[in-house]
Amino acid sequence: CGVFGVVGVADAANFVALGLHALQHRGQEAGGIVSYDPDHGFNSARRFGYVRDNFTKPDVMETLPGSLAIGHVRYSTAGSKGATAIRDVQPFFGEFSMGGAAIAHNGNLTNAAALRRELIERGSIFQSSSDSECIIHLMARSIQKNIPERIKDALRRVEGAFSVVAMTRTKLIGVRDPLGVRPLVLGRVGDSGWALSSETCGLDIIGAEFIREIDPGEMVVIEGNKVESFRPFAPAKSRFCIFEHVYFSRPDSILGGRSVYETRHQIGVELAKEAPVEADLVCPVPDSGTPAAIGYSQQSGIPYAMGIIRNQYMGRTFIEPTEQIRNMGVRLKLNVNRALIKGKRVILVDDSVVRGTTSRKIKDMILDAGAAEVHFRIASPPTAWPCFYGVDTPERSKLLAATMSEDEMRDWIGVDSLKFISLDGLYRAAGEAAGRDAASPRYCDACFSGDYPIAPSDKIEEGFEM
Ligand code: 5GP
Ligand code: SF4
Ligand code: MG
């Protein structure tokens, strides 16, 4: 998901709509904005579909006045069951004795099921199926006298990954979980306003100046010109999601002090060193494989070419919730550049193999077009473990790499060769010259290593074995 907030500018909701549009790649199912203005109080609009189709309409935007607003773009993750209902669309809102507050959450709470059970037993009435709603109910039960303190109380009880953007009548609040698994950045809007965004590309779109990242375990409370910083949690070593660099974030974002594009490009360079092969062309699987394919081509000297053309008007395939739609999506979205591919030995660079469905279909398309050989190079290590921290991966048994060796995967996909970047190679590309420090890894890489930095306690209770 993506979160965004703005304070201190007229018609803040318009800025939030733009910010969410820049973060649309983080969630395409639905979006919502809450604003506050003294005449109308809190206002909210939640809609299915793209930001541009909903939050550009005058009849929607007119209902969101005020100089303080937050928003959210949603895609449902492992935590949520089935399709999104409108009641699952954030921001969530709560009315407390000291006034209302709205929150938007990116990430996944790993103890939400246990908390929900406990809260329901004690009288909470849940409106949604979302793990994030626990935060509002925990705030309601807090005995603290102001909302920032209640947010601290609530977030000290949750486990998992969270980048939260919240608002009261006057304050914009941002928090990152102690490990900083999901990103969150702070920007300056003109000389009166502030913005919080999942990624720096959300600041760029509104012309905001990137000030800094919110630190792992940090909470900022912004009111007027003042940005106050708190450390509500016990200190921990940060474990930013390495998959944000591989796939999830936009390549023009700068996260963890590093350009996402640069990391992806370097992944291609590392891959060409680790897994060279003789071929005529290096082609990306658009768009997520593009920077790595450029790096592979530059390092190997094999020409880069667009062997697969993407229809600009389709969304990210993976993010549509059902498997059936996902399978269809691949053909709706991608087509082969036949004139280029015929008779060629082609290296295809993609970001990841999850179920393997995408790779298999792409291989079929490339062979149908008359390619002489197909070699897959993957910009991440084999995805052998599910993510419980906010990226949608299927259960372990559906992950190709959980049940097959690399050679078996190659044969199942049906290509001449298949190679994944090593975990060390990925760390080198992400700026760790010495590779992965096994004793104290810099990033979360659980979906590749099975090394979960936060115990997925709900899943363990359901029988998940680490
Ligand atoms: P597969 O068909 O192997 O299950 O899907 C892998 C493809 O889905 C990759 O090409 C990747 O670009 C795309 N994808 C979209 N969203 C995600 C995600 O949340 N996690 C992973 N690992 N891949 C995703
Ligand atoms: Fe990111 Fe993978 Fe960790 Fe999930 S398990 S937070 S996708 S690195
Ligand atoms: Mg892809």
UniProtKB/TrEMBL annotation:
Residues 1-225 form the Glutamine amidotransferase type-2 domain. Gene3D superfamilies: 3.40.50.2020, Glutamine Phosphoribosylpyrophosphate, subunit 1, domain 1 (3.60.20.10). It catalyses: 5-phospho-beta-D-ribosylamine + L-glutamate + diphosphate = 5-phospho-alpha-D-ribose 1-diphosphate + L-glutamine + H2O. The active site is at C1 (nucleophile). Pathway: Purine metabolism; IMP biosynthesis via de novo pathway; N(1)-(5-phospho-D-ribosyl)glycinamide from 5-phospho-alpha-D-ribose 1-diphosphate: step 1/2. Binds 1 Mg(2+) ion per subunit. Pfam families: GATase_7. Mg(2+) binds at S288, D350, D351. It is an enzyme of class 2 (transferase). Keywords: 4Fe-4S, Glutamine amidotransferase, Glycosyltransferase, Iron, Iron-sulfur, Magnesium, Metal-binding, Purine biosynthesis, Transferase. In the C-terminal section; belongs to the purine/pyrimidine phosphoribosyltransferase family. Catalyzes the formation of phosphoribosylamine from phosphoribosylpyrophosphate (PRPP) and glutamine. This is Amidophosphoribosyltransferase. The gene is purF.
